[in-house]
Amino acid sequence: MYRGRDDSDLNDDERYAFKGWIGEKDFINKEPKPTFIDLTSKKVTYEMSLYPFYEIENATETATDLKYFSFREIRQVKLIKKKYIYPDQGDITEDPEKITLENQYVIDIKEEYRNSISGKITLPSTDAKGRIITAVGNLGESSKITHIFFLPDAEYQLLGGIDSNSSAFNGMTKLKLVHFPENMVSLKYIGDKCFNNNFELVTIENLPNTIEYIGDSSFSNASKLVIQELPKNLKYIGSMAFVNCYNLFATVLPHGLTYILPGVFTYCRGL
After folding, report:
1. 44: number of Cβ within 10 Å
2. Domain count within the chain
3. Do 179 and 150 touch, CB atoms closer than 8 A?
4. Same domain for 131 and 242?
5. Can you give the pLDDT at residue 8?
6. In sequence order, which residues have a C-beta less than 8 Å from that of residue 196 and are 6 or more positions away?
7. 84 pLDDT exceeds 70?
């Protein structure tokens, strides 16, 4: 996405943004305001050397180019809310409820970029026409993404859980950091397997306290992720949600937490 320039020398919230191609003279002189060469209109009739020009940008403030994403409208999303009841016989039965979300506008990574988009990406808050994005669909299995940022004006309500193929960040094996803006109040639902198998994920910055629902296996196998406390408004945790989260240290459960399904804290060594 950024012409392959390594940004490991920058801060977590900074990245190199490719701005265009420049000539050899500007490159050698390290010209801060070079002349860009438009390859779409230039007919090359002789040998020439071109160099990529980058600027450092703040990933918390600038959205990634919309060309990498597709958008879709889902009229109705239903999240399963299981309630486990223990009858006199001791058997476990399910009494499921459904949480219904209306008119979700969903962002996905385009299939043609799924294996090439890399590094630090910032999810846009709106599409090209200004329509507000409210849910993350399928960004998973994009194995080269290391950081994900949400903009300050983001109004996302739901991460994953749209359908069986929409598990948000599931399987992002190189993902290290997810950043939410401070005081984000829109996010309420984390769908099944949202952060599942994020083996390198260490930090989620500003996890919103407005989150009420964490689905099945949402954080399973995120073994490096450090979680000091759970969202204060949390009401429901699905089965196996934090399996193998070795660095979960949240010893105080939220006051309004009503349902904790089986296997939630299996192998959580920090508890």
Report:
1. 9
2. 2
3. yes
4. yes
5. 85
6. 167, 170, 171, 217, 218, 219, 220, 221, 222
7. no
- At 130, the amino acid letter reads G
| Residue 138 domain-assigned (yes or no) | yes
Q: Is the pLDDT of residue 87 over 60?
A: no
As beta bridge partners, residue 15 has 57
Quick one: CA torsion of 182, 185, 189, 193, rounded to 10 degrees?
-10
pLDDT above 90 coverage of the chain, percent: 76
Q: Residue range 208-213: average pLDDT?
A: 98
Residue for token digits 């996010």? 187
DSSP 3-state of 25 = helix
CA 17/CA 59 separation, integer angstroms: 10
Nearest to 77 by CA among 156, 149, 154, 179: 156
Residue 93, domain extent: 60-271
Count the neighbouring beta carbons within 10 Å of the beta carbon of residue 230: 19
Over the stretch 211-260, which tens digit does the pLDDT of each residue have?
Answer: 999 999 999 999 999 999 999 999 999 999 999 999 999 889 999 999 99
* Residue 70, phi then psi, degrees to nearest 5: -120, 160
Q: What is the residue type of 240?
A: M
Residue with tokens 């979960």: 248
Does the residue 8 lie in any domain? no
